[in-house]
Amino acid sequence: MKLTDDEKAMLDGKEGIGRQRAMELLVRYCKALGAERLVDTNNVATAINATNPHQREWAARGDFDGVFAEFNVDSPDRFEMPPLKAFTCHLIGAMDVGHWQVLGVPERLVDLQRQSEAFFGPRGIQLMQTCTPYQVGNVPVKGEHCAWMESSAVVYCNSVLGACTNTEGTASTGAAALTGKIPYWGYHIPDNRFGTHLLRVECEVESMMDWGMLGYFAGELVEEDIPVIDRVGKVPNLIRLKHFGAAAASSGGVEMYHVAGVTPEAPSIDAAFGPRRRPAQVIKYGPAERRATYDNLNSQATDRDIDFVMLGCPHESIEQVWEVAKLLDGKKVSANTQLWVHTPRAIKQVADRNGYTRIIEDAGAHLMSDTCPAISQYVPKGTKVVATDSAKQGHYLPAILGVQCWFGSMEDCVNAAVSGRWNGAL
Length: 426
Prior knowledge:
Layout: H1 5-11, H2 17-33, E1 38-40, E2 44-46, H3 56-60, H4 64-72, E3 88-90, H5 100-103, H6 107-120, E4 125-126, E5 147-148, H7 151-159, H8 170-179, E6 181-183, E7 197-201, H9 208-222, E8 227-230, H10 238-251, E9 258-259, H11 269-273, E10 281-285, H12 287-297, E11 308-311, H13 318-328, E12 338-342, H14 345-354, H15 356-362, E13 366-368, H16 373-376, E14 385-388, H17 391-401, E15 404-407, H18 410-419
Parallel strand pairs: 2-3, 2-5, 3-4, 7-8, 7-10, 8-9, 11-12, 11-14, 12-13, 14-15
Antiparallel strand pairs: 1-6
Helix pairs in contact: 2-8, 7-10, 9-10, 9-12, 10-17, 13-15
């Protein structure tokens, strides 16, 4: 490995044991990856919690320095958490402390969460608490090197923003936050960002549901490669691209995609594939593939009585919260069903001011922040059948929680919450 003078100084312990342990981790990481050097970063998205079973003993003693050293730097030594070198935001967490009773979270864990936030916030962890940091202020520019966790955030960062990140973990992002460094490999290298597969769209892809299904189809076929989407018709907005990437990262392992004429590194098909490159495969997505994808996403459900409706994966934009409010205005959620809508806390504050939260709550639903059922693993007690407009949640919830799950449009899901029955259709 080639280390710069400032990297050698941190590795030699000249900036304290915390940065030394972080650099040691990054050097081991580089060697495992075959990376020859590190690259500077000033944009980290990580998760620092003190509420999982392995961390509670440390947190109960008030030793949040120990939590950070053990779980975010993988250090055998406890050290006092030094000031962060990189701008670092907190991703989605384990609970919404404002709705802990609705979630069914034990109060002792709520207290630990509050203590954790009180410790890490003043030390430079920006408590955005969302899987969509780009919706609430963390918007890296094209070519910027980042160190992000969370599959749906990573694929958006690479594809829609044109910034550069691999899917990192808690330890590598913790080390990046302390050092401002991350291994230079994978999607940090320009030559690795070209497309591999061409996906020709031969049917209408318009709604958020359409884009979620297209992403789910693409991820299943390309797995960890880079699809290039052609012939999409109308330019997709943030919501549609957000759901495409989240679905593709769930059914496959997609960390980057291109939409010809839309995403920043794909002004054309040729540009997306780069010099001297041809698609490894040309894939058609037409009416038959669309129908098969919809049926696949709904293959885990048979019972039409709905216990729980979940919206907001990835977290809802203010536009989506507005749409939910309009669909619920003047209606009531069924007594046999619960509806939870998830959005970043910063966006919820806008929804509060706009009156959307009141409309949602008057209907008997809840507008929540900071978490989602796949992360928290909290759903209403007795839940057996779920409905969601998220292909990502449709993929994960049956496996994580052992529930049946229906997938459809936002309107289908709100109607299911109001009627207590699933009547969605393609």
